[in-house]
Design goal:
Pfam family, one: Peptidase_M3
Oligomer: single chain
Structural class: mainly alpha
Number of strands: 0
Helix content: 40-55%
Distance between the termini: 22 Å
GO molecular function: metal ion binding; metalloendopeptidase activity
GO biological process, one term: peptide metabolic process
Protein name: Peptidase M3A/M3B catalytic domain-containing protein
Order of helices and strands: HHHHH
InterPro entries: Neurolysin/TOP_dom2 (IPR024077), Pept_M3A_M3B (IPR045090), Pept_M3A_M3B_dom (IPR001567)
Number of helices: 5
């Protein structure tokens, strides 16, 4: 978002260690709760009126809503990742989806739908692989 680069290999998050990619988003997520900072930039797009105090209070109150659910989500990600990379046998009778379902049943409040294919979009398990471009 903040780069101006014609070369794709050095633009955005290209060439950045994967662990460092999360830093800006975490910084932005938490920085926006700093009252003075947020109120200095949060203006109505037409009137320029500042963010009302009661809206800021609601934003802060909602900050940790469902924090436990999000923690469980991260535990699922980590548990599936660890199992697939340590004990899973691709030639065995258990599919990667079976592993994910078993882990999800232990870590999620609601069981995934039968057609859930979360793993198809779980790119974190492939992050850090060598690039060949």
């Amino acid at each position: 978002m903040l780069t101006r680069q014609d070369e794709a290999f050095v633009a955005g998050i290209s060439g950045i260690e994967w662990d460092a990619v999360e830093l800006p988003s975490q910084f932005m997520e938490n920085w926006c709760y700093h009252k003075n900072t947020l109120l200095s930039i949060a203006k109505h797009y037409e009137t320029g009126e500042p963010l009302p105090e009661e809206i800021y209070a609601k934003l802060v109150a909602a900050k940790n809503f469902r924090a436990g659910t999000f923690s469980l989500r991260q535990i699922r990600f980590a548990s599936v990742d660890m199992e697939l990379h340590t004990t899973y046998d691709p030639s065995g009778p258990v599919s990667v989806y079976d592993v994910d379902r078993r882990v999800a049943e232990k870590t999620q409040v609601l069981a995934p739908l039968p057609e859930d294919r979360f793993l198809c979009g779980f790119s974190h398990i492939f992050a850090g692989l060598p690039r060949f471009d």
